[in-house]
Input
Amino acid sequence: MDSDVADAGAAHGAALPAGGIAIVVGSSGGIGSALLARLSAQPRFNSVLGLGRRGSPPLDLTDEASIAEAACQIQALGADVRLIVDASGILHAEGLSPEKSWRDLDAVQLAKAFAVNAIGPALLMKHFLPLLPRQGRSVFATLSARVGSIADNRLGGWYGYRASKAALNQLVRTAAIELGRRQPAALCVALHPGTVATSLSSPFVKAGLDVQTPEQAAGRLLDVIDRLPPGSSGGFFDHRGDPVPW
Ligand SMILES: NC(=O)c1ccc[n+]([C@@H]2O[C@H](COP(=O)([O-])OP(=O)(O)OC[C@H]3O[C@@H](n4cnc5c(N)ncnc54)[C@H](OP(=O)(O)O)[C@@H]3O)[C@@H](O)[C@H]2O)c1
Output
């Protein structure tokens, strides 16, 4: 384990049953590739699959058919899907940068942030939550961001990223309620990874911030997932396992 925080809390959660499939969506990204490497190095799952736009089958969050096809191919494997971590997301891209002022608000940029950060993960939940087994513990975790917290918003700015992550949090909460009726031992949560040195964060990291390597963040996130107590479904937790206010 990377963190003593995880050691301290390990007793509170329950590890996922051994075997089955673990999936990382956004496995080409900084955190996603570290999650994939860490999970692949563990003997606990029978197979660990990475999904993304450049994978096979390709999964593009802005193309529901590609999400449905990937879910269909995984279901056809016939094994229990025990863990799905969605590590996809967008903060900046060509023609997209976080807004400093309402003067920067742009309909196309806002729609892009919502498409990747909220609508895409919603469609992932639509097609992948039904794959979680009815028996035994399983987890769907999507990477949100503390800046999506409305209660925690003291600095302003980053309208599209904040609002799309806030929307993601509400989608997680809503899906968790439905999931709880169908698969009571399954958990659906939003996680804040902390500040992590990736291409997403690199233009914005300021001196003095506690910046983790992707490997550290992956270790902490997987520890948090293992420690999620029953009843935590629908929650929003940081990389230490502490709840983040909505
Ligand atoms: N890094 C941080 O400090 C930090 C802090 C708080 C929250 N987060 C959150 O953590 C998550 C991972 O961030 P990261 O830092 O690892 O970012 P990253 O290195 O930029 O990775 C982002 C991932 O999202 C994928 N993606 C983007 N658009 C997609 C689409 N349309 N369809 C499918 N996949 C798509 C990328 O795939 P391609 O390779 O195909 O582009 C890549 O795999 C994000 O949700 C982010 O908001 C990160």
